[in-house]
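For the sake of clarity, the format in which proteins appear in this thesis is described at this point. The fold follows as a row of integers, each naming the local backbone shape at the matching residue. One such record is shown here in full, so that the layout can be seen directly:
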Amino acid sequence: SELVTMDAGIVNSKPTPVSEEDLPNLVPIFQAMYVGDPSAIDAFQAQHEAALEADFNTVRSQNILFEILPKGASKASALQALSQTLGYSRDQVMALGDANNDLEMLRFAGYSVAMGNGNAAVKEIADFITLTNDEDGVAHAIHKLIETEKGE
């Protein structure tokens, strides 16, 4: 569908349709993403989320997107592992996000930043709200953090 192609294009990827019969031949599966009209995703989530959460991490990252990941896999767990490997504590970590799949990561980071185009849940928990993606919000947040550290 057009929504699937658009979402895959955000991360420079091309979607590959897979039938349920082919799934056993595709192990391991890194991530399943259900993309579609918000009402269809609402219905799928209502019907399947509870059962899926027994074995997987699930997140409704956008109104058109429901993600299913391996248990324990999240942006937060990846950020925690990376910071530990590099020898940084949580208070030395800044994370930026814009959607529900970023919430756990933002809660982990010592300094959390919501993108200006982020959703309300992200903005509510963030320490700082930066500019939008189109306004170079990441660069703006980095500059603000540097100014704060310098005491400017």
